[in-house]
User: What shape does this take?
Amino acid sequence: MFTSGTKITQKDILYILNNPWDVTNQEWDLGTNNSPKHVLESILKKLSFCKKDGFSKIWKTGNNEPIAILGFYSVNEKTYRSIFIASKYMEDHAFYITRDLRKTIMEKTKTYLDCKCGLYSSSTHPQHIKWFALLGFEYRPEENIGHLRFFEFVFPGNSILCQKFYFVNAIRTFHFYKNFTEINLNKKINYLYFLNNQLKLILCEEGQ
Assistant: This one.
């Protein structure tokens, strides 16, 4: 299992950079053009921005080893950027970390109404792109820079948009869940009920 919190140390970051998840290794170009020390400075700077206007979170294993770090910081009015790095333990905890990531993002929708959060990714792996979609990030090719792809998350600004947002993400979650045999049938059925109720709420509000 894992634990989560907001206290992130330099030691935590260095552990991840020296024991990276394959995707993190690719995204930050570790071991080729960027050394862990150079990347560390960049991440520390971005996390300092998170403290001023944004938030950050860390996930750890039961043995207190860092799994992943999320950062969300302001670059302009109602415009944010995010960073995400993960260690080798992400492979074993991907399902549960992804679920908690989505939960964290949804909890922030009330705080960041009408805001946008973007990120650049060098990954071209189809599953990684689907992973961004599952988290609620949409691909914006017009914002690409060179080989870097741009993905953007838009926080809904009113109740009907919120309902649609939760409905779409619930569908994505159901499709994500159905690929995991360890997720029992009752949980899948409960999600179908949730989808049905969310759709009813959307239809009722649009009819007003």
